[in-house]
């Protein structure tokens, strides 16, 4: 039987990051992946011959600069290309453009609302202050205010000092941001509906909330946290798709000595006397290791990988209560020609950025209404990118790929997801985009529709939730994923968690993997 | 008015922000788009089309053409085969660099020399008593650099020829839609790339052909701001920025030898006499005093300097070309001459002249940085050049 110091379950990007850090610390490390390729939800696959897709996760926003540096990821293939703009097609043939050039963007906003063009500057400054206030939290193991452990107290003291240093005005703004709905929060600042809707959209991605749901405002901050790292320019599109990021991290991990096995599904974590002793593969093979780290979501980590009866009942109950709720789907299209948007005809720089179908707050809220009652949105919110316009290698010359992130697509669909419902969902998406780009339907030469059920089936993410559990306030920070188990540990000694279901979670950030590894190694962070 | 290049009719309408800069008496685009990020990304990700026509170009021909160039430059020109290109500096009699450029051997006794500054007089002086014709073809030739991982695919499409055979620092004559073009596998970006030399009168149709064929490969006209980032990553020096021509230097300290610039590899020690040889041999025998090296600024230290005043690090998106002192143990040991944040490598890079013994790779030094109006020092490490050296450059 082979023995390792540490076995990681699942080769998602967080587990790969954790593996790299553990291997760099001299541990013998094995990563086990059920699929034939690494990356979890950050994978690139040639779905149609010659057409490559970031099948699930499709942009990089908050990949931690310290990880990029520590693992020297550019040398391993990290190459982030700029995503320069966001275009919002409007009903009636106009559009709202948010460009990377500040003058161009201001002029465009002023065309719609001179007031908002000005407000946007002040709002941006406030949000940047908020993001700076919150950002240190991304790099620290969250202290638990209910705990009297010295490390928790030390962390709380530091955090308390940090928030005091914000001053009253910013602290109050932060409090509002944490509790309000994004619609209410943005109403305080802007009058332009598509602007509010587009900003609000970033607050609902991956959650089962609408723009008018309380608590949706704070996710707005994520966008601005990316801006703080602006000088680092780690926001954009990875060359070769998001799978290339996973490959880069995997390459760094291998270089540090980690072993990565694909096609190796873990069935169970072996536990003896309350201690993890290794894993049992579905093939029957056993691997010994005093340290087992799960990169899977909390439901799989606690309920599927651990034999029933080994965990305290209240922990099992808390995991069952953990809100996962898949709310989004993905449509990937292979195109024979570029979409021709009625609002901005022809080819242009707008096709190198995001195209956001978010014309108004009502539009988003109605899309949510459908989902609340168990239907997919007939007119969904969509975040569209054309990766082949940024990286020509994603499609054959002259051809294109289009990635459409779609919300809402509830995991618990009335009547369940069937092939027919999936295609009906795909039709709703294509029909909606085709309203803005009439040539789309004739350009489609391949269509992949992924419901949350498909995302779950392929990646293993429970309910197809892209964040391994919602980024809602009640399950963030020291409460992520569970009260009292927010520091990457589990009730089983030697069994750890490192996926996006732990703090801070969400997006291709890698922070969960890094913090878990540092915590395992007993290093102080934050 | 400054001169315009043969591609001006095409480039001018693309310059959205009227961002022009001077280069050798010409105006060339600093950036075409309002932000140059995409232009830079094209160099490393797809293909960038850069107007490099302001380079000075001389045709040197006649029985003694090879002898003249061999006498003038540091490289061993006798070893330059037909269809080969050599990068080389050339020196004054004291072994100090006058300029640098490329020599292309177009035929047995026909060469083309490119340079950053006018060199007709120096060529003529060096040619005393030789049977050689020197022609300044600078204005007769347009020059385009097509640089980036997809540049070869575009050129193959537009020439209809397989270009795998065209190796690094080789050239061939071909046609693009009937336009005679010299294509050399050279560039100033450190990436896979080519330079195209064309009769000025046919420059515009060549531009059009490349843009059209390149559309499916993400071809992007790129300006000097984008090029400047790439050349720093590639560790390539620039005249008047990283060193000064000995012909313009007012004091000795402003001059540099090829050895000091890290160009020792260009010196043909075994070849016959050439201008500056004696001085260079003497210099080689002494321990080196100065050396141009790379610096990588430690991000954590930079972040800490900004954190002190409550800011995230602020970095210019354009490469800087000002002199910044470099210190070690409190004493100044050199100066950086250009630097930039590398969007590709995610590192803050600089080129610096450092005194012995501080230029050893890995040495820790401190670079002066201005943080909100205050002069501070960030720690930096000496690195070997180039910073970026992809296999595709030579493959």
Helix content of chain B: 10-25%
Main sheet of chain B? 6 strands, mixed
Oligomeric form: heterodimer
Q: Which CATH architecture of the largest domain in chain B is right?
A: 2-Layer Sandwich
* Largest sheet descriptor of chain A: 7 strands, mixed
Strand content of chain B: 25-35%
What is the radius of gyration of chain B?
21 Å
The percent range for strand residues of chain A is: 15-25%
Q: Largest interface, per-chain counts? A: A-B, 34 and 27 residues
Q: State the end-to-end distance of chain A.
A: 38 Å
CATH class of the largest domain in chain A: Alpha Beta
- From the alpha-carbon coordinates, what is the Rg of chain A to the nearest angstrom? 22 Å
Number of domains of chain B: 3
The number of distinct β-strands of chain B equals 19
How would you explain this protein's 3D organization?
The complex is a heterodimer of chains A (526) and B (395). Chain A is built from 18 helices and 20 strands. By secondary structure, chain A is of the alpha/beta class. In chain A, the strands form 5 sheets. In chain A, strands 8-7-16-17-18-15-19 form a 7-stranded mixed β-sheet, with helices on both faces. Chain A is globular, with a radius of gyration of 22 Å. Chain B is of the alpha+beta class. The radius of gyration of chain B is 21 Å and the shape is globular. The N and C termini of chain B lie far apart (43 Å). In chain B, strand 11 and strand 12 (193-199) form a beta hairpin. In chain B, 50% of the residues are buried. At the A-B interface, helix 2 and strand 6 of A face helix 2 of B.
Topology at a glance:
The complex is a heterodimer of chains A (526) and B (395).
Chain A: E1 2-3, E2 6-9, H1 13-24, E3 29-32, E4 44-48, E5 51-54, H2 65-70, E6 80-81, E7 86-89, E8 95-98, H3 102-112, H4 114-138, H5 150-164, H6 168-179, H7 182-187, H8 193-204, H9 220-228, E9 237-238, H10 243-255, E10 259-261, E11 266-272, E12 275-281, E13 286-288, E14 291-294, H11 298-304, H12 313-321, E15 328-335, E16 354-357, H13 361-372, E17 381-385, H14 387-390, E18 400-407, H15 419-436, H16 440-443, E19 444-450, H17 452-459, E20 495-497, H18 511-520
Parallel strand pairs in A: 1-13, 2-3, 2-14, 3-10, 7-16, 14-20
Antiparallel strand pairs in A: 4-5, 6-9, 7-8, 11-12, 12-13, 15-18, 15-19, 16-17, 17-18
Helix pairs in contact in A: 1-10, 1-18, 3-4, 4-9, 8-9, 8-13, 11-12
Chain B: H1 8-11, E1 20-23, E2 26-29, H2 37-45, E3 47-51, E4 56-61, H3 65-72, E5 85-91, E6 97-107, E7 110-115, H4 120-126, E8 133-136, E9 141-147, H5 151-159, E10 171-176, E11 179-184, E12 193-199, H6 203-214, E13 219-221, H7 224-233, H8 277-285, E14 290-297, H9 299-307, E15 324-328, E16 331-342, E17 347-355, E18 364-371, E19 374-383
Parallel strand pairs in B: 3-13
Antiparallel strand pairs in B: 1-2, 3-9, 4-7, 4-8, 5-6, 6-7, 9-12, 10-11, 11-12, 14-17, 14-19, 15-16, 15-18, 16-17, 18-19
Helix pairs in contact in B: 2-7, 5-6
């Amino acid at each position: 039987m082979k023995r390792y110091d540490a076995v990681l379950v699942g080769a998602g990007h967080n587990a790969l990051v954790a593996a790299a850090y553990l291997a760099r610390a001299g541990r013998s490390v094995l990563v086990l992946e059920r699929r034939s390729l690494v990356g979890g939800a950050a994978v690139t696959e040639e779905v149609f011959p010659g057409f490559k897709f970031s099948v699930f996760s499709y942009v990089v926003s908050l990949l931690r600069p310290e990880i990029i540096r520590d693992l020297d990821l550019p040398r391993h293939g990290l190459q982030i290309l700029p995503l320069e703009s966001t275009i919002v097609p409007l009903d009636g043939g106009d559009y709202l453009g948010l460009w990377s050039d500040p003058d161009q963007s201001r002029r465009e906003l002023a065309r719609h609302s001179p007031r908002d063009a000005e407000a946007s500057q002040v709002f941006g400054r406030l949000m940047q202050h908020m993001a700076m206030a919150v950002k240190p939290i991304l790099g620290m193991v969250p202290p638990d205010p209910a705990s009297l452990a010295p490390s928790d107290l030390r962390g709380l003291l530091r955090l308390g000092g940090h928030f005091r240093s914000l001053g009253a005005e910013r602290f109050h703004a932060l409090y509002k941001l944490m509790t309000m709905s994004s619609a209410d929060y943005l109403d305080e600042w802007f009058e332009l509906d598509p602007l509010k809707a587009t900003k609000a959209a970033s607050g609902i991605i991956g959650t089962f909330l609408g723009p008018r749901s309380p608590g949706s405002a704070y996710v707005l901050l994520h966008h601005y946290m990316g801006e703080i790292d602006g000088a680092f320019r780690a926001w954009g599109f990875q060359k070769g798709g998001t799978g290339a990021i996973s490959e880069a991290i995997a390459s760094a991990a291998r270089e540090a000595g980690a072993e990565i096995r694909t096609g190796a599904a873990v069935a169970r974590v072996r536990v003896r006397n309350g201690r993890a002793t290794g894993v049992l593969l579905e093939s029957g093979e056993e691997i010994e290791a005093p340290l087992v780290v799960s990169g899977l979501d909390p439901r799989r980590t606690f309920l599927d990988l651990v034999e029933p009866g080994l965990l305290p009942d209240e922990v099992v109950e808390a995991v069952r209560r953990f809100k996962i709720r898949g709310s989004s789907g993905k449509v990937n299209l292979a195109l024979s020609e570029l979409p021709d948007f009625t609002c901005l005809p022809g080819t242009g720089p707008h096709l190198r950025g995001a195209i956001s179908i978010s014309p108004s707050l009502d539009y988003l809220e109605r899309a949510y209404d459908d989902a609340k009652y168990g239907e997919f949105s007939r007119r969904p919110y969509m975040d569209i990118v054309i990766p082949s316009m940024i990286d020509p290698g994603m499609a054959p010359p002259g051809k294109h790929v289009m990635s459409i992130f779609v919300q809402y697509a509830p995991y618990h669909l009335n009547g369940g997801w069937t092939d027919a419902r999936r295609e009906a969902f795909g039709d709703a998406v294509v029909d909606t985009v085709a309203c803005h780009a009439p040539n789309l339907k004739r350009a489609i030469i391949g269509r992949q529709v992924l419901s949350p059920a498909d995302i779950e089936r392929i990646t293993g993410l429970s309910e197809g939730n892209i964040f391994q559990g919602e980024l809602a306030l009640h399950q963030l920070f020291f409460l992520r994923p569970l009260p009292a188990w927010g520091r990457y540990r589990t009730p089983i000694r030697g069994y750890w968690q490192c996926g996006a279901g732990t703090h801070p979670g969400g997006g291709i950030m890698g922070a969960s993997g890094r913090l878990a590894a540092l915590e395992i190694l007993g290093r102080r962070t934050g | 008015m400054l001169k315009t290049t043969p591609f001006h009719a095409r480039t001018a309408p693309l310059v959205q922000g009227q961002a022009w800069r001077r280069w050798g008496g010409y105006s060339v685009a600093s950036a075409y788009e309002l932000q140059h990020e995409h232009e830079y990304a094209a160099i490393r990700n797809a293909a960038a089309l850069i107007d490099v026509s302001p380079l000075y170009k001389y045709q040197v021909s006649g029985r003694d053409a090879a002898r003249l160039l061999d006498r003038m430059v540091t490289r061993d020109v006798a070893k330059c085969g037909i269809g080969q290109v050599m990068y080389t500096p050339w020196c004054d009699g004291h072994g100090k660099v006058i300029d640098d450029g490329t020599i292309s051997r177009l035929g047995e006794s026909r060469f083309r020399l490119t340079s950053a500054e006018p060199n007709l007089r120096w060529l003529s002086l060096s040619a005393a008593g030789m049977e050689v014709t020197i022609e300044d073809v600078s204005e007769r030739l347009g020059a385009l650099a097509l640089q980036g991982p997809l540049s070869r695919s575009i050129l193959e499409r537009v020439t209809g020829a397989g270009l795998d055979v065209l190796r690094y620092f080789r050239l061939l004559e071909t046609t693009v839609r009937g336009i005679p073009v010299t294509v050399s596998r050279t560039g100033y970006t450190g990436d896979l790339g080519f330079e195209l030399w064309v009769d000025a009168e046919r420059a515009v149709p060549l531009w059009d052909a490349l843009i059209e064929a390149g559309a499916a490969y993400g071809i992007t006209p790129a300006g000097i701001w984008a090029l400047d980032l790439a050349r720093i990553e590639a560790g390539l020096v620039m005249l008047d920025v990283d060193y000064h021509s000995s012909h313009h230097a007012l004091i000795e300290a402003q001059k540099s030898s090829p050895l000091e610039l890290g160009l020792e590899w260009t010196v043909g020690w075994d070849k016959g006499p050439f201008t500056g040889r004696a001085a260079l041999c003497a210099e080689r025998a002494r321990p080196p005093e100065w050396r141009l090296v790379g610096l990588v600024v430690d991000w954590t230290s930079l972040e800490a300097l900004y954190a002190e005043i409550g800011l995230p690090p602020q970095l210019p998106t354009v490469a800087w070309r000002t002199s910044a002192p470099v210190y070690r143990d409190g004493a100044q040991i050199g100066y950086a001459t250009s630097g930039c944040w590398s969007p590709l490598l995610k590192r803050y890079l600089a080129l610096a002249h450092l005194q012995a013994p501080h230029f050893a790779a890995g040495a820790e030094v401190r670079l002066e940085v201005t943080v909100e109006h205050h002069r501070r020092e960030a720690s930096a490490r000496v690195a070997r050049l180039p910073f970026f050296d992809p296999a595709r450059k030579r493959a």
